[in-house]
Backbone:
């Protein structure tokens, strides 16, 4: 039965010579293929930009919108909770899209 090489014997073996690489050996894609790939990348980047969420405008606080639209703050807060107007909650504060409040008031006949 052959004996297993000792640990020192395993690491004392000379390393193989690295294979030289010539510039000719490097594969280069044809220019028309590179142009096609660049066009594909540009198309994909445009599509990703389309799908990314747009940054929200700085919406005013609920109390500011309530004052500007002549509403009671609690009513507007209720609308926000029920999803009747466009708003977002950050912690305990509500930020409201004033145009959605005005549009809802118009639909209900409170504004002209």
Residues:
């Amino acid at each position: 039965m052959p004996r297993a090489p000792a640990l020192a014997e395993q690491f004392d073996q000379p390393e193989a010579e690295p294979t030289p690489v010539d510039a000719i050996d490097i594969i280069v894609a044809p220019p028309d293929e590179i142009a096609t790939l660049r066009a594909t990348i540009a198309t994909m980047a445009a599509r990703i930009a389309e799908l990314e969420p747009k940054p929200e405008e700085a919406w005013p606080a609920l109390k500011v919108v309530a004052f500007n639209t002549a509403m009671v703050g609690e009513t507007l807060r209720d609308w926000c909770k029920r999803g009747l107007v466009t708003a977002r909650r950050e912690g305990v504060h509500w930020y409201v899209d004033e145009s959605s409040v005005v549009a809802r008031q118009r639909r209900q006949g409170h504004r002209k």
The longest strand covers residues 87-90. The beta strands are 87-90, 93-96.
